[in-house]
Structure formats: C-alpha cells, structure tokens
Predict the structure.
Amino acid sequence: MRPHFLGAARSRPAVPVFRRLLSMLLAAAVALLGLVAVSAATSPAAHAVDPTPVKNGVPPVIFDDPAVPDDGPTVGRPAFAHPGFWTPSDATVTLTWYREGSTDPLGTGSVLMVPFEALGEKLRVSATATAPGRTPTTVVSKPSAPVLAGTPIAYAKPAIFGTPEVGSTLAAWEGSWSETPDTYAYRWFEAGTAAPIGTAKDLVVPASAAGKAITVEVTVSKAEWNDGAATSDPVTVAAPGEAPLTNVAKPAISEHPAVGALALAHPGVWSSEPDSITAEWFRSGSSTPFHTGSDLAVPVPPEALGETLTVKVTAHKAGRDDATATSASSDVVVKGTLHNVEEPAIFGSPVVGGTVEAWPGSWFPAPATTSYRWIVDGASVGTGKTLVVPAAAAGKELTVEVTTTKTAYDDAVVSSEPVSVTAPANPVKNLTAPSIEGTLQVGATVTVNTGTWDPGDVTKTVEWYRSGSETPIPNGTGTSLEIPADAEGEMLSVVVKGSKPGLTDAYAYSAPRGPVLAAGGTQVVENLVAPAITPDPEVGQVVGAHPGVWSAQPDSVTLQWFVAGASQPFHTGTELFVLVPPAAAGKTLTVRAVAAKDGYTSGEATSDPSDVVAEGTLHAVSAPAVYGKAIPGATVVAWEGVWPAGPDDFDYRWLVEGSATPVGTAKELVVPAGTAGKKLSVEVTAKKAGYTDAVAHSADVTIETPGTTAVQNVRAPEILLAPGSGLPKVGDLIGASVGAWNPWPADASGYDVEWYRSGSAQPIGTGVFLVVPSSAAGQQLTVKVTAKRAGYLDGSAFSAPVLVLSAAQSPGCGTASTALAAATVAQADATAALVQAKAKVTKLKAKKKAAKKLGKKAKVAKLKAKLAKARSAVAAAQLGLAKADADLASAKAKHASSC
C-alpha cells in the first residue's frame, strides 16, 4: 500500500536556523566595523593633503543576494561588493571583478550579475582607491565561496491549450524561460490529489477531473544548471460538451491605422473554435463602439485621429456561454489619404485673353474644400476656379494644380494635363464659359447661357452634342433644345462660336451635364467610372475595391463580391476590403457596386474580372517540436506548431541523422533500435484547401542510450511534520515526501528512503516514517531519497535539514527560534542600511567640496539637493535600526521563555 504522503506537496522549510543566524551575526560585525571606519574617516585629519598612499581600513568584501539565502554566489543572480573603508574618506574607489586565478575582468561596479563561465570557481573583487595628492592603493578581497549553479527563471508561465472538458485532449505550452532548456518534463494535477494524472505534453482529460481545477507543472532541465519549475494557471474541467469558451490568445489589431483606411483585426485564439464572433471597435476617446458586427476589417473614422483603437471580440458557440477578450491598444491613428480617381482638367478656350475653367477631378472620399493654382513655366498666374489667360502664357503650356482638404486627412495635390496657350490674331475672347440650364430629361427643354465675350456684340452660334457622338444633335443649333429620345442616358454639352468681322473666331465649351433621364423617369445615380479591384489577390489576404465614380455623390455604395462561376456573393457590405476565401484559388473575382441616394433610383455597375487569385501561403509562427524521452523503444509525439490559418490536415516525416528516408509517418513514433546517439527530428507538412502546402521542421533531439541517464529530481524531498507542531522533538512521528522525479519510478518500491542526523554518516532510520530518537536531540535532521527505474541510473536527492528539539522543550520553541532568526536578519539588514546611507553622505560631501573648489556652482547646487536627500535617508535608516533593535530584543525574550 502506498504511504499516505509519499508524494505529498509541502512548501520548502526555512533556511537552517543556526547557519542563517551565524551569517547574520557576521554581517552585523562587518557593519559595526564599517561604522567605526566611517567615524574615523570623517575627522578633519582625513582631508589633509598627504603624499602618502591612500590607506585601507577595512578591505572590500563580497556577499551574495541577501534575499536568496544559499551557500555563495549563484549563476544568473547578482553578487554584491562593499568597497571597504578608506582614508581619506573622499577617496574614489573603483571595483573590478575577477575569477580567482584569472586576470580577465568579469565586470566593474558594486554589483555583478554572475556569468555562467564562473560556475564552480571563486570570485574576487579588486578595489583601487585614488585621492588628490595621494598614491593610489589597490586591495583585493578574500575569495568568495565557489559559484553555484543557477536556476532558469520562467518569464512567462506555462499555459494550457485546448477545451477543458472530460475526454478532450489538452496540450501544455512550456512558457518562456531565461535560459533555453535542454529538456522539459510535465506533470498534470487535478485539485485534491497529490499524484499527477499525466506526465506527457498532452493530456486526455479523465472523468475524475470533472468539475475540478487542473494545472500543468513544467520542469526545465539544462546542463550545468539547476532544474527550474513553473505551474500554469488552473482551468476548470467541465463535462463533455459543457466546457466554457475561454480566450487563449488575445485579439490583435494591424499596425499603423489611418483615418479612412481599413483597420484589420485577428479575432484571437479560443479554447475551442467559436461558431461565430462579434467584434466591437473602440477608439480611446470614447466608451461607445464606432462599429459592431462580425467584420474584422473596418474603416477608421475621422474622430479616431491621434487616438488608439481596441477591438473587443465576443465568441459565440452553441450550448456555451459567450466569452469576450479585448486586444491591446493599436498604434496611434494617423491622418488618412485623399485618393484622386480622375485627374483635374481644363475647360474653355486656352487663348490669351480667353477664360478657362478648372474641373477638380474625382476624389475618394469627397474632399471638404478644393483650391486651385494656375501654373505657367513653374510660376503661379492665378488661384481661382477660372482664369483669364494672361499674355505671358502665349506659346507656353498651362496647368492647374488642385489642392483638396478634409478634416483628419492629409492635404492632397494633383495637377491637370497641360494645355497649350495660343496667341490671338486679334481674336474674339470668351470671358465666361457657357453652361447648360434646365432639367435633363427626354422631352424637356434646356437652354444655354452662352457666357460673356469681348467684344460684347459678337455673333454667337450654338451647337448641342451628346456623349459618344461627334455630330451635333439635329435641330440643336439654337439657344434652347428639346431633348430627343436618343439622348437618354447620355451627357450633354454645347459649343459656342463667337465671331465678328475683322476678328478671329473663338470657341467656348460648356462643362458636360447628365446623364439624361427617360421621359417621366426619376433621377438615377449613373455610373461614370466602373468599380475596380486591387491587383494580385491571394487566398487569405485582404483584397480591396474602388466603388467607382457616379453622376451624383451616393449616400451609400453596397459591394457584392463574387468568385467566377458563382451566382451567390461570398461577401456583401459597404466595406472596401475583404478577405479572399479559399474557394477563389485559381479563379477571378468581380465586385458589383449598387449606389443609393435619397430621391434617386439606385445605380449598379460591375467591375472587370480581377487578376487570377493565387493560392494562399501557410506560415508556422511556432516551429514543430518533438515531445517525449527519445530512447530506443520509447514513444515520442510530434507537436505540429502554431499555424494561424488553421490547416485542415498534417503529414509527418520522422528523420534520423544520416538518412533521408523517414523512419515513421504518423504523429507518434516508436524510436527505432540502433539509433542511440543520433539526432531525431520531425518534418510537418500543413495542408489547407486553397493554400499551398507548407513544410516546417522541429529542432533536433539527441536519442539517448538506455541506462546512461539517471532519474532526475525535479522537486527535492521534504520532511513532513504534524500541522502546527513547529520543529520536531524527540519521540515525534515524522514522515518524508519523496519529492518529484523524471521519469517517475514505476511504484513505491522504486524509492529508498534513509534518515540522517548531523555528525553521523550512518542512517538512523529507513522508510517514509521515523520516530525521532533521543540521539537526534539538538541535531540537524535530513532525509535522503534514492529513486530507481528500469533503463535508468539511480538518482538521489536530500531534503533541507530541520532542527530537532529535546523532549523537554515546548512546541513553541521552534516558532520562537524561527522568529529570532528573522529578527536577527532584520537587525543586520537595518545596520547595513544605516552604514550605506552614512557612506553616501560622506561621498556626496566630498564631491560637493571638490566642485566648490573648482567653482562649479551648478554642480554644487545639484549636490546640495542630493546631500539633503541622503541625510533624510540616514534619518530614516536610524529609525529603521531602532525598530529592528526593539524587535530583536522582543524575539530574544520570547526565545528564552520558550526554549
């Protein structure tokens, strides 16, 4: 029968009391010696100019992180050096770190992050002191204890992926570590049980876990480092089909959003695939969403300029409660871009003295203001919508530059094609261009305003034209026209010729108007320029459309997107950008635009077919990996990695070093015999309809030789005491937790448990229980566990020691001893803090004196402020030491009465 607490968990006991007490007393002695040195250094004699060397009173000393008690400096943790105390007190001290026996420095300053290359070696710190008028002096500290192996730190905790319900498969993400591990080990736990329910990367959730919280503990191993362990946040297991939706990876927004452009969102990753999602888009300046729906691509509103965007995604799944997650804030929204669809143009007669008019072109979106600048030979000759052509332009080219503006958009500038200006041979001049007036409808009569001319008594001849014809409309030669039936749907314009005997004729053209409505018809939003699709569409990527140009500015344009050969659109809405579906691969796209305007009949137009849609590209953002112990005869499993597009299927090829022929093509592989010492990897091919297959490779793992790897301890054994009993005493029954191992021994017979007391190399007991013998009174007690498993070497580990009380000592003695040790530590820390604060005041006073001597008033002022702050720190440290002294006295009294 397995003992009740064979694998029971318990927090690590405190650092042994006597060792900690001794180290704190030594620290206090060094600190008190420092106080004497400070007192001597601040005497007036210490500041006298003396040609003798700088004198060292107390040499530099190395000590490791006081917050992490251990036996010496540790790789990856800080080691600290005190520079010692010197005469004069204003000497400048430079600290340099070395490995003992080496002249290559490891670093400088009072703190060193211990590097890996120092493992197992001792450290020394060299202090070189200099002072004006003195010879420099160098003193080297005593060597530290040998540098201990470090422990990797988890920067990001492990996490559980998958749907947490009975029968489903969960996967562990190992987290992110300060060092790259060589191997990972996993232990899955359900609440209420001490033994793990799984030790692989994946876990099929057992029925026993229903309604309970489960976690995964990941232990990392790296050569010449201590093992590191971290535990995921818990997830609660539901019955089959009842697990709540949970967010695994938050939604995200595309970079560099701009007003009017599309902001794209990734909906995030969820514990199971949602049936649908709702996205609420927010700008940082408002708590009300500016867009709600299933759209993951929305235009950025002008109000968002200078703000950031977030998207809140609500996932829906039948039979489950909705779940929500919110993205991090986007980049700051920048101004949008005004797009010129059709270039500006010049209308009228480009003759010296004649009048020309600028057409601003067609823009998207519609600008708020439009301004003009007329240019000849790079020089501005006018700024209005119309221009009387100046004499200086004769024989040159004339262009108009159009500038458009709109709130939250960058100004846009576009120029027309140039027109050539001719010099008149005493010509008639058109001063104001003609224009068409009236209702443009078949059967209606429209009139022409012929414009103004110089001279004013010219004879004016009018011709009416419809678009698509170079022949004047029959009977269209007067100042009015009854619109004929064949002009329906066309644009109308007029040409007016001005003539006078003795002068050169001149021609003026009206701007076109239209289109012409049918008789009795309503106004129609007519398409002037068809919609168009952006080039080179690709499955899974965004494709965009221009909605076209219309005879009247629509209130809205609805776009229907079609794949060639399909009668139903794959997307309908006002969005200008959509994601290309897999069904479009190898085909073309068209977009049908329906323009609507209040009071008008809606207009419709279809784009030309797009370029042929290319297959999408699958990308692995996390590489595949091999999980399991790679030993001949053992089973390893392929993890496919992370593919954002969500492949439909995967193929696998297991490769052993030295051969291109796979040794397996399934997700799992039994490692073949005769491969020990070689490298093993898995090649994963991802497949998805509409996408090109993509291949990703795992990192190599080395296949180990059976029997050459020891069972690894991943959590040390512990001595277990009765709750609330404090330290054990003679006659108590105590137990041992065997800790955690990788791999786990097959059963309880795979452990040997031995008990030891300090001062004896022979065990005083075996097994997981021990009645404390009288020979252990006042001694340190430890337990040694040796773990065994077939195919592995034995592994051993010791617990932390605990102090055994005599039978006569009260149960409260252990608690009082612990409290006394803590109070001693606090008093030593407070003493050291006061020493450090006073040393800082001394150093600042010396710097101030030197600055004053050099006449640096600004620096003196800064040092005065720092000195005032440092003196306040001394006062605070004195108060802290007084409190620590009082607490220590109280702890000593309680210890005396209890022990």
Notes: Residues 812-853 form the longest helix (42 residues). The longest strand covers residues 213-221. Residues 42-140 form one domain. Confidence is low (pLDDT under 50) at residues 1-50.
